[in-house]
């Protein structure tokens, strides 16, 4: 789990989230109100929900493009359970919450850097990367 995380507020602009992503070389930033995680904004959210719609990222708030009520884990969650949850829910990042407070984030990269989890990370990525089925 990555414990040193940067977050944004829902009322900040898309530009602020993009600046953090650029500075940290990451593709997602948790969205918090106080210390409570209320969403997550990804580079994909920015492209599909802002840029592709011709919206101005300087005036568009994060709240209008973020994924609300993200799937979360806990610090005491077994890494295998986290990988299974990420695979089942097709997510690449799992905010970690303790006592209603954001304390970290687990990414597929975090799983992959530990030798014993490489296969599990690969399996999760395979599940997450499956094309969606028509509804």
TrEMBL record:
Pfam families linked to this entry: CBS
Keyword tags: CBS domain
PROSITE patterns membership: CBS
Origin: domain of life: Bacteria
Domain CBS: 1-57, 66-121
Keyword Acyltransferase found: no
Segment forming the signal sequence: none
This protein's name: CBS domain-containing protein
């Amino acid at each position: 789990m990555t414990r040193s995380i940067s977050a944004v507020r829902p009322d900040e602009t898309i530009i602020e989230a993009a600046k953090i992503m650029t500075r940290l070389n990451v593709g997602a930033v948790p969205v918090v109100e106080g210390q409570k995680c209320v969403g997550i904004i990804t580079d994909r959210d920015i492209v599909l929900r802002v840029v592709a719609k011709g919206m101005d990222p300087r005036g568009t708030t994060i709240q209008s493009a973020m994924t609300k009520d993200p799937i979360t884990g806990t610090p005491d969650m077994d890494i295998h359970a986290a990988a299974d949850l990420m695979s089942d829910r097709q997510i690449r990042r799992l905010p970690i919450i303790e006592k209603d407070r954001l304390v970290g984030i687990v990414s597929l990269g975090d799983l992959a850097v530990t030798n014993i989890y490489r296969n599990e990370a690969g399996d999760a990525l395979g599940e997450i990367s499956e094309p969606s089925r028509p509804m």
